[in-house]
Amino acid sequence: MSAHFERVALIGLGLIGGSIALAARRAGAAGRIVGYARSEQTRAAARRLGLCDEVAESAAEAVAGADLVILCVPVGAMRAVAAEIGPALAEGVVVSDVGSVKGAVIAALEVLPAHVHVVPAHPLAGTEHSGPESGFAELFDNRYCLVTPLPGGDSGAKGRLADFWRALGANVEEMAPERHDLVLAVTSHAPHLIAYTMVGVADDMRRVTKSEVIKYSAAGFRDFTRIAASDPTMWRDVFLNNKAATLEILGRFTEELFALQRAIRTGDGDQLHDYFTRTRAIRRGIIDAGQDTAAPDFGRAPTRKPDVRKPSE
Ligand SMILES: NC(=O)c1ccc[n+]([C@@H]2O[C@H](COP(=O)([O-])OP(=O)(O)OC[C@H]3O[C@@H](n4cnc5c(N)ncnc54)[C@H](O)[C@@H]3O)[C@@H](O)[C@H]2O)c1
Ligand SMILES: O=C(O)C(=O)C[C@]1(C(=O)O)C=C[C@@H](O)C=C1
């Protein structure tokens, strides 16, 4: 199979950058893969692991002559990295990113020169691990990758990036950036904050946690601790850059929580039962639609498409 891009530059060689390198190699989707990460330690690890064909000593060196550049750094670092690589980018290069937030990243990428094609994207795949050792080639298999194209953007560049992600195993779909940020606030950002909070609450209960919480933790709490082990820098940046949507969802969450809290206090068993019946049906609907059952597979593309409703419905 011929490569989709001749020279792919990955800025950031952690879980996502490392996995892209490995998946692209598996697929033969890149002629040559050049990587760069800010820390000397990460660059040394990437070399030791053989993640890329070449690990550059600067971001500008990595992107020179590339026909695809993917920014795989925390959302809060996108603007500085884009400003740094701008002068070194070739005419017509496709510049993309994998940031978990799209509106703020698109604004950050405005510092890029006009002669490049910007095509923002977000693979809905990850784990709680970070750093170069955590990457693996199968991460994107049968996962969604959402592309959030810019108005008036180059359709050829968008198509080439979509084909690249398909070669890496992903199912590519398009979404408007604002809708992306609202949907992800519900399905990823708020749940992470809730997990962080739940584990924080347990930790505050030192009397209990010291001796007993870990020992007797059941599957539900363990799932929370997995999510709450996710990278602090990445998640700080997600919340600071998707403020409006996250606050909107957390506001709704708090209202529902208070309603359930009241039902418990007043002994309203019917309300609790009705609520849990509704949420159980949602889970069963996902499974019926062909989505895998295990929690980490939640972002996998279903084998049979569910009914996808528009925001107004
Ligand atoms: N972890 C996930 O589950 C997941 C899933 C999808 C998308 N994302 C997004 O992917 C991006 C990377 O996340 P990750 O999980 O790979 O993180 P990571 O911590 O594993 O890797 C981040 C990499 O960026 C490098 N870096 C940080 N600041 C930099 C800078 N200023 N210049 C150059 N390199 C810099 C780090 O050295 C590291 O190599 C983030 O934007 C995140 O929102 C993460
Ligand atoms: O599986 C996990 O550990 C993840 O948190 C992955 C996850 C998610 O919330 O689904 C996290 C952030 C992303 O931007 C995309 C995927």
Short description:
This protein has about 325 residues and is α/β, with parallel strands linked by helices. It contains twelve helices and nine strands.
**N-to-C span:** 42 Å
Bound molecules: nicotinamide-adenine-dinucleotide, prephenic acid
Total beta strands: 9
CATH topology of the largest domain: Rossmann fold
Q: Average pLDDT across residues?
A: 91
What does the main sheet amount to? Answer: 6 strands, parallel
* Name of the level-1 CATH class of the largest domain: Alpha Beta
CATH homologous superfamily classification of the largest domain: NAD(P)-binding Rossmann-like Domain
CATH architecture of the largest domain: 3-Layer(aba) Sandwich
Q: How would the global form be characterised? A: globular
SSE pattern: EHEHEHEHEHEEEHEHHHHHH
Percent of residues in beta strands? 5-15%
Low-confidence stretches: 292-299, 302-313
Total number of helical segments?
A: 12
Which value, in Å, is the CA radius of gyration? 21 Å
Structural class, from secondary structure content? Answer: alpha/beta
Question: Explain this structure to me?
Answer:
With 313 residues, the chain is α/β, with parallel strands linked by helices. It folds into 2 domains: 5-175, Rossmann fold; 179-266, 6-phosphogluconate dehydrogenase C-terminal like domain (6-phosphogluconate dehydrogenase C-terminal fold), CATH 1.10.3660.10. The model is unreliable at 292-299 and 302-313 (pLDDT under 50). Helices cover 50% and strands 12% of the residues. The longest helix is centred in the middle third of the chain and has 28 residues, at 177-204. The strands form 2 sheets. It has a 6-stranded parallel β-sheet, with helices on both faces. A 3-stranded mixed β-sheet has the order 7-8-9, covered by helices on one side. Helix 7 (177-204) crosses helix 11. The chain starts with a strand and ends in a 25-residue tail after the last helix. The chain binds nicotinamide-adenine-dinucleotide (NAD) and prephenic acid.
